[in-house]
């Protein structure tokens, strides 16, 4: 039964993930049918490559530390304080996370880049410094920390701390001895997620890094696309893969720690209005941080998209719908990219839902096994391995996947090079982890004895699923669909390789526009980014309305 | 209940040597070679502390838990390989497990829908059952709006609706408060009599078991320690375990010689026909009679607890372990007072020395 459910996801991953990635790595490391593992050493001792490695780790660590520093107070505010507009603010905080990296890059470019807001005001430019990248990463990952840590924090029973206070612990001692240990695993998990996202950062560094700063992922792209140096790209891909595997293993470990028995209560009962100067200051400070760090870049992006050469107006928007000015980079009108993105995104969402839904169902089945002591250790390991496998696309270089698609899916019976489905398939790969992570907690939360109750009343296994599981996961399914859609819309690393020149997606079109000189291109990039932001934010706000619990991981 | 009785009544459920192991071989099994028979229209209550294997027993019968050894027969047919949904048994879960997204009628009609009953039949049965359990007109109510007692009634109606040949109840009244529980036990017993339902219930509450059951089965560590009518079990606990589980703690080492037993409390009269030799001996609190301090065994009252109908006394004799006694409110001594006690033979029970 479980194997049957696993079959489709496994086939999907084997064909559209493992095969292309292995093929391209193999091509890089093989020469005339011989493995050249010596290349590993050659590439990894190249000072330029070492520099990239060092920068990748350094910026990921710095981004993670900075994000935790800025977002942890925010997590506390969202968990413990009640204030008007909290729900709306929670949604606003989430917007950057679903924004395509390309949009985030453009927004920060509009804020701190050449001709950006800070440049206009004080002649200050940060796009040549690493700060632009770090701040963009904080912008992007603020929600990860607030959601993961704040979600748990809000559900921790405040009476635990009160119990410690009654037993003689001071306010800080109670927090340190009771709350902090309970939060520890969640903080670790959030930190790992942020590190993972920033370690594999592509779009942001590509746009803000200039020639100076380059992460592994950007370097893989450069080696592959610009220099056609497959061996170096293959080694870098392997290295990144190994690092990501390690991070994911750590993450799985912290998640398991996090599932340890904590006293959880309804989050809505633990929040109250701030009391005293300190708490009000914390609340206002958090609001200020959110305004400056999260809202201002988005507003500047919108502002720039309207700031035409002759004052404010919709010129950048109107020109989007025409294909051919002299310096246009497009054979089609940039606005067509919107339609391309939407249809690709919809198809990718369907694929991700089917594959991810089946995978989540398979993982749940194993959980509700008949024996209370669980399966045999071997089956248990198999399931955990399957779980980890589903997370891999988050960490494997999207550039590698995209290029792998090009070189492997080009021969019958699977010649998809010119197929429309190539792009949605690649985008679905990134959507699946989100679908699984959203569905799994909900499916696992369905009390196994409800299923048993239905079975005793005469429902066959299929009826049990339809009558008990489906009604409960319907909302989660919608949320998963929203995430998959937003992620597909924003996918850049793989799509940039495989989208055909006459069918660019929005992020690809934005990147192309930004790659060209000229005020019109810049303005159009801002306009397209704004459109993309509105679509993503719209999808997210629709989700927030149907979102029920904060226990998911995203 | 003797084997002979089974030949006269129709046998509905039979477990033969059912064993379930959760851990590795060598660890004590959750069910250890359990044999149990339930006749048609009989109400059997399995009584035991938590961890004694009661719930596992029900899950094996329902097919939710495969047995490692042994057989389950329903109406003489071996149920090995028959999936849960084809066994035609009902199970009322400990915490009801009502479907939260359906209303009351949706829950009660669930089993009928699974059997493809017509809509009209469903509605008629739901109405009948809701009347029966005392919730007339509750069809459209949401599960979340029901109190604990109401949920319990809906769960019962849901389990009864498909007319299972065997109804199993797991701690049916466990989460309800005392008053409601006592009322519902009486109601349930009347209801099962009326409907002629065969019932296998498990509980850790002896009051519930004695009030509900025709026959009580006491379980200990996955094995059956004693079977009998409520009266038999109460009056003649078979082992020290059963005695202590029922709350009788006056158990001592004894040696029977003729019509008395020599114990640390002195000589205690035993019922007629007791065989001589060493044994474990129980004196039920009602069999500890208070006399004046000069007669009988001298004791100091160590504690007294008011129990509503009587007063429970904890007595410290000059020699031997502490004793529990029950006496009427009017002449209950104060803590610290000196009293004398004598033993009544009809409340002395010789326990099976092999178990417990």
TrEMBL record, chain B:
<keyword id="KW-0547">Nucleotide-binding</keyword>
<dbReference type="InterPro" id="IPR003439">
    <property type="entry name" value="ABC_transporter-like_ATP-bd"/>
</dbReference>
<keyword id="KW-0067">ATP-binding</keyword>
<dbReference type="GO" id="GO:0043190">
    <property type="term" value="C:ATP-binding cassette (ABC) transporter complex"/>
</dbReference>
<dbReference type="InterPro" id="IPR027417">
    <property type="entry name" value="P-loop_NTPase"/>
</dbReference>
<dbReference type="InterPro" id="IPR008995">
    <property type="entry name" value="Mo/tungstate-bd_C_term_dom"/>
</dbReference>
<dbReference type="InterPro" id="IPR017871">
    <property type="entry name" value="ABC_transporter-like_CS"/>
</dbReference>
<dbReference type="GO" id="GO:0005524">
    <property type="term" value="F:ATP binding"/>
</dbReference>
<keyword id="KW-0813">Transport</keyword>
<feature type="domain" description="ABC transporter">
    <location>
        <begin position="13"/>
        <end position="246"/>
    </location>
</feature>
<dbReference type="InterPro" id="IPR050093">
    <property type="entry name" value="ABC_SmlMolc_Importer"/>
</dbReference>
<dbReference type="Pfam" id="PF00005">
    <property type="entry name" value="ABC_tran"/>
</dbReference>
<dbReference type="InterPro" id="IPR013611">
    <property type="entry name" value="Transp-assoc_OB_typ2"/>
</dbReference>
<dbReference type="GO" id="GO:0015418">
    <property type="term" value="F:ABC-type quaternary ammonium compound transporting activity"/>
</dbReference>
<dbReference type="Pfam" id="PF08402">
    <property type="entry name" value="TOBE_2"/>
</dbReference>
<dbReference type="InterPro" id="IPR003593">
    <property type="entry name" value="AAA+_ATPase"/>
</dbReference>
<dbReference type="GO" id="GO:0016887">
    <property type="term" value="F:ATP hydrolysis activity"/>
</dbReference>
<protein>
    <recommendedName>
        <fullName>ABC-type quaternary amine transporter</fullName>
        <ecNumber>7.6.2.9</ecNumber>
    </recommendedName>
</protein>
